[in-house]
Amino acid sequence: MIRESGRFRVVRYVAYVVFGLFFLLPLYSMLDFSTRDVATGARTGKAWAALVQDEVLRASIVTSILLAVLTTVLMLALLVPTMIWVRLRVPQASRLIEFLCLLPLTIPPLVIVVGISNVYAWVSYLFGNSAYTLTFVYVVLVLPYSYRAIDSALSSINVVTLAEAARSLGAGWSTVILRVILPNITSGVTNATFVTVALVLGEYTFTSLLNFPQTMPYVIAAIGKSDAPVSVAAALGSLIFATLLLLLFSLLGRRNRSAKEA
Amino acid sequence: MARRILRVSIVAAVSVTALAACAPPSKDSGSSGSSADAATATSADDLGGMDGLVKAAEKEGALNVIALPPDWANYGNIIKAFQAKYPKIKLTSAQPAAASQDEINAAKSLKGTDRAPDVFDLGQSVALANTAMFAKYQVATWDDVSADFKDADGAWVNDYGGYMSIGYDSKKVPEVTGLDSLMGSEFKGKVALNGNPTEAGAAFSGVMMAALGNGGSADDIGPGVDYFGKLKKAGNFVPVDPDPATIESGQTPVVIDWDYLNAAETAKLPSWKVVVPDDAVVAGYYYQAISKDAPHPAAARLWQEFLYSDAGQNLWLGGGARPVRADAMVKAGTIDQSAYDALPPVNGASVTPTIPQTEKAATYLSANWAKAIG
Amino acid sequence: MSKLSKAAPWAGLLPFMIYLVVFLLAPTITVVVGAFQEDGRFSLVNVNELFSSTLLTVLWKSVLLSGVSAIVGAVLGAFLSYLIVTRPATSVVRRVVTAAAGVLAQFGGLSLAFAFIATLGFSGIVTKAVSSSLGLDIYGNGWIYALPGLTLVYTYFQIPLMVIVFLPALDGVRPQWREAAVSLGASTWQYWRQVAAPLLTPAFLGALLLLFANAFAAYATAAILVSQGQPITPLFIRAALNSEVMLGRQNLAFALAFEMVIVVSIVMAAYALLLRRASRWLR
What we know:
The complex is a heterotrimer of chains A (262), B (374) and C (283). Chain A is 77% helix and 0% strand. Chain A is mainly α and 262 residues long.
């Protein structure tokens, strides 16, 4: 491995400090406000205690985690085979897919809800009124981010050559996708999963506009409506919770992932 | 062969889109005849009196309300009281942060599902523009409400109202006696308006209040816009949207908003005071209505009966809002006298802009507000 | 036989396309149709209003805000990604930064706005600390409640988003290549320009495009920070759809949404052109 110059190491540590300050200071402000008593200004853990004791919140955490898992699975099942397929067999379609995957981002959520209301009336009719039906629209919402993460990974390996080599050795398509290409894009798939989970755990607009009050972001907003320190504690708490969840996931994943260590 | 595949896929895509474009077969609760009756009931008598209404509502078992924040005119306690009185009816409070137009949009988007809103609580403009979506119903205490505050047929009725006020943190800024106080240098970076006046009714009324206090009138909102322009130039006006977090963290120590909303903040922050400026009194009432396509029509009507009962009206009073039956209740002695006396004093004739006046002011605002503030 | 094999590859896209048709096409069609309607009939009145000086200024400000925050986010995010990717995959720093990036990339709206107000607002923590220790007034004229402040707040989620979508590309750059280049006498600059950059350019540009679209469509944070005057297009859309003071402008909102789709399409076309140019130059 190439040793870094001492000069670069200084740059690295300075960068860590600057980035750290930039990202942590606003979070510290949130912590500061959420641990302060409104009337007296004294330090108190009241807001955080209220958060932990709320039962509705606990139920909603389970709902949201399950929703995140469902969305991730459906997203991966739809997106990964399609993207690999496009690279291998229908490269003319790549611009089209890229555009379609960017579209959900450009249409404002309010407008999407207006357009999707008939579709969701059908979804409610077929699948009931459970909050898990949000999976369908969440997969669409997360497309832009997941697409880009997976595409980044695909662009850095030579998909066509790998596939041809595997096929010439007699592999079927599912083997090519699952056992040849997928292991080489784990970074992209992992990041796509991260962003999906983070989106589901933080998404408020659609769960509110489509009236599904059982999800975590909704309950958090509801709790915070009447109590400002609790709402800030809830926001900070959900950030920390999501980060810990993702960390856990990354620890459970492949431990010897690195293709970098020769 | 390829062409057939192409044809099949096109047909599949088109039919799926077509299906998606029409509404699904409506889940008819027509099996229970009582729901159909409730949807057309224009008063409790149509369902066999209050007892019949309660029974029909409990059979429906659910109620969807929308855009009712818990600290807005004490809705948190109203919802709790309703749940305690009718435990068999599960109340779902959706989108507490929604604006009036969001309520109408939700009713349209969710039409036919069980999650559509049953009742509305709307600002003046949105209410009067959408009366076709309301069901006609007259509550038991209908006659207590004067004719100005209700639709003759019962499509809508005013529920509570308040006056435009200035709320301020007495620990962070000096005493505020009127609009002129806010121009002082001690208010630099401290004054916020609740929303954008070209969008939100509360902000619109705030600018109207500034107009009244600076020589304007309900027909002329110009002086109000000029006032805020001056406030911005002095560096006192911040364009941020205030909420309890910004107030309690000291970022917006002065907020121009409805008196009952400012009063809710006093309950949490004892140093928060509320003043209605003399001779710049803008009144605003909200409009209560039942959705014509309510998924739970009997429960919706029961909710209205509860709101207009003495208990419901006093709960609104507890939140600092003026209930529409106040005068009748004072005469009958059923009003919560201590809460009534605690309302901020009002000096001067109150002004409520009519729809034509509102439209004229809105046009002026959309042309001039951004320029004055930007 | 050949006709079947020509169509079959496209059939592999069917599941994805059908899903999109159902859940994405309907809203898109609503936007396009609604943009050209007024009062239920065909009309160009809303599309014409898009070219009014007010709305063109608003559009320009949106593009500027999105462009600047995208470029700043992309450059800083790429740099941060580079710092992490040179750590082994099991390092704590890498795991924590990646997890945090995933979460902060989606952080926005009310909470983010409040966090920044509480930090840099008139009575913000940093404002007070700087003024008491260094005597400087960083609040000034309230720049944080206007476009410059919004740009700073946007980079808060743009940088993590860049890390999330660009890191996988950096992961594909093998350290062996650098060793090989060095052993052949290449300088660091030459390595980057001739080995790493060609590989990374498509991913970088793609990520930049995403960051632009992300900022362009974002409105929840701006709605709080710059609640007065609608300086950017998404706020105008929200006002047109939700205003209780000026009613009946739903079709204008659709026209504006249509305009946003067009703008992003144009940016995407420019990106595709740039990609083709870059790949030719680097060959």
